Amino acid sequence: MDKLLKLEEIGQFLLSIALFSLLDYQWWIFLLLIFLPDISMVGYLFNTKIGAIFYNVFHHKFIGISLMIVGYFGKMDLITLAGIILFGHAAMDRIFNYGLKFNDSFHHTHLGWIGGKTKPQK
């Protein structure tokens, strides 16, 4: 099942590349922006709850898809671009098992515990 889910995420990442190619931007823009959503990790400087909120907003595929739709129908290429980047970045992260965060630990995601971590013992 894990391989099937990874294949699905790879397909979604490739879809983001295909959608980007329909916009009138140079390819280096995609390469520059694809890691930009990770700036949301700055929230973890405050605490894990704020960090999880920031991280999840910038890594939620529905937000990316919503921006793509609004940008497309509103003829706002910059908004469409932002949606494609958010969607593509979220898919890319999930390929590497970085999922949406719970507010107890950066390593606790909807995909399980990352980085070889396990649930802390009490």
Oligomer: single chain
- Succession of helices and strands: HHHHHEE
The number of helices is 5
Gyration radius over CA:
15 Å
Strand count? 2
* Poorly predicted ranges: none
Strand content: under 5%
Considering DSSP H and I runs of 4 or more, what fraction of the residues is helical? 55-70%
What's the topology here?
Elements: H1 2-21, H2 27-33, H3 48-57, H4 61-73, H5 77-95, E1 108-109, E2 112-113
Antiparallel strand pairs: 1-2
Give an account of the 3D structure.
The chain is mainly alpha-helical and 122 residues long. The protein has a two-stranded antiparallel sheet with strand order 1-2. Helix 1 runs antiparallel to helix 5 and helix 4 runs antiparallel to helix 5. The longest helix is centred in the N-terminal third of the chain and has 20 residues. The chain is globular, with a radius of gyration of 15 Å. 25% of the residues are buried.
Spell out the key features of this protein:
mainly alpha, 122 residues, single chain
Quick structural summary:
This protein is mainly α and 122 residues long.
